[in-house]
Amino acid sequence: MIKFSELNLIEPLQKSLLLQGYEIPTAIQAQSIPFLIKGKDLLGVAQTGTGKTAAFSLPLLQSLTRSAIGRPKAGKPRALILAPTRELAIQIGDSIKIYGKFLSIITTTIYGGISQLKQIAALNRGVDIVVSTPGRLLDLINQNKISLKGIEFYVLDEADRMLDMGFIHDVKKITKQIPEKRQTLLFSATMPNEIANLAKGLLNNPVKIEVAVQSTTADRIDQQVLFVEKSKKRNLLSYILEDKGVSRALVFTRTKHGANRVAKYLEQQNIRTGVIHGNKSQNARQNALKGFKDGKLRILVATDIAARGIDIDKVTHVINFNLPNEPEIYVHRIGRTARAGLEGQAISFCDEEERDYLFDIERVIRKFVDVRVEHPFHAQNIRDAKKSFARKNNNRATSGANGEKRQKLTSSHKKKRPKGGNKHGIMELKNIKSQNSRKKRPQSGKN
Fold it and tell me: What is the largest CA-CA distance in the chain?
């Protein structure tokens, strides 16, 4: 069993990790940090929740400290970390400040949606590390408020999400501003062709680390699916929330308008609710997150893009008001609960249009999601149709977690995906096994 104390990290970093109670690194941390300390480029296939922030932040802080040449120059950072959303950028920046608590490394976070004046003032004072979203960074580059000519360390986080959000061209423009002689890290949950090609152009003989979480789900999460007519979903949500055990829940919707409608409905039911999505202002999103973290809001309704970077402990339930059309998003969603050794519950509503999504999810997580029929809005016709679909696409049966037969797809199965499906496909990832994979671990560096 590897411990952080065995990873050759400098004493100030070890001190901050101990202060946070981190003793055992996650798989990606244990395998990445030794290579990154040596200056290697890295391609990491990993989702949020695997500990990648600490995996790249700790070696970065160590390298900057060992090569420090005095106070950083105004507008000329030495390290750049790109993130697709404001929430994730803020989370990364906060984590770096925690890990670097006993170091003289200066970090700032820049993103759109707020005034740039304070961000420019921070850059003018001089910073070592900039954590940024692509759009605001390009704005400041065009205004000559920041220069990337001195970047020695370049990190691209959640590259596939940047592709989905249309940022990939901005990323390429930014990369052209950075010296070719640098250490580069790229992290992505999946590896579509465009990201694979981007990685080839960015990385120099990289080490590749793969951590598969999209095909597995935490044992501590109780997963349930409730079949319901689309028109009855809000009624079902009210019914679920009558249970006071649902004390802090994330509710995921597919669209921004859907999130607004669900949040408005819950407020009308006198349920304290916040909502975050891409159309909300930065202040509104941060206020909603703070209220949810502080316990002032019982429910937080979110879209997937806005939820990137949410890292809140003690979330008791994740409720999929709409099933996602990409299985890996399902795993990312339910991973918001059962953190820090706690247990959690994931409840998914499935209407007649979402049967295919459920089938794909079960195929990827390699188990059936338990069906809950004890609720007043159960739609047996949708459940029966889902079973019929599974039988039709049967290749070979294996046991499912709930005692039913599990159906595998044949290699020639070409099911037509509903509109909005995953155009890049799903990459089956390989589990990285460690000696302590089945042992109860002390708290790990989850960021």
Answer: 69
Question: What does the block give as tokens for 445?
Answer: 């560096």
- Domain extents for the chain? 4-210, 221-407
Geometric angle at alpha carbon 409, from 404 and 414, rounded to 5°? 140
Is the Cα torsion angle 418, 421, 424, 427 positive or negative in sign?
negative
Looking at domain 221-407, which CATH architecture does it have?
3-Layer(aba) Sandwich (3.40)
Rounded Cα distance between 427 and 47, Å, is 13
pLDDT in tens, 247-275: 999 999 999 999 999 999 999 999 999 99
Which has more confidence, 363 or 414? Answer: 363
**Whole-number Cα distances in Å, 333 to 196, 250, 303, 356:** 25, 9, 10, 18
Task: Indicate whether 414 pLDDT > 80.
Answer: no
CB 386 within 8 A of CB 240: no
pLDDT at 307 over 70: no
Q: How many helices (H) and strands (E) does the chain have?
A: 16, 16
Assign 348 a pLDDT band (cuts: 50, 70, 90): very high
Q: Token pair for residue 308?
A: 């990137």
Measured distance CA(286)–CA(297) in Å, rounded: 13
Q: Which CATH class is domain 4-210?
A: alpha beta
> Which residues are CB-neighbours of 250 under 8 A, at least 6 positions away?
299, 300, 302, 307, 310, 315, 317, 318, 319, 333, 336, 337
